[in-house]
Specification:
This protein has five helices and no strands. It has 78 residues and is an all-alpha fold.
């Protein structure tokens, strides 16, 4: 059975679009696949948890210290 789709608030949709744009630009600059920069499941966790600090970003499963160091500030700026 399909789960009903939950519509995200407009602010979340804008933030998601901005994160995806940032991910694609970072991916192009680093010549890495977008999913290597920020996988969709991690992007969703960032939105769901409304991450606002490096410490809270570090608590996301599969984000890891390397991503925190490499991308944390850029993500939080969005």
């Amino acid at each position: 059975q399909k789960k009903p789709r939950i519509r995200r608030p407009a602010e979340d949709v804008r933030c998601e679009d901005d994160l995806k744009k940032w991910r694609n630009q970072t991916s192009d600059r680093e010549k890495r696949p977008p999913m290597a920069v920020l996988p969709n499941h991690v992007l969703t966790q960032i939105l769901d948890r409304r991450v606002t600090t490096i410490d809270s970003l570090a608590l996301i499963p599969h984000f890891g210290p390397r991503r925190v160091e490499r991308y944390g500030e850029g993500i939080l700026a969005i």
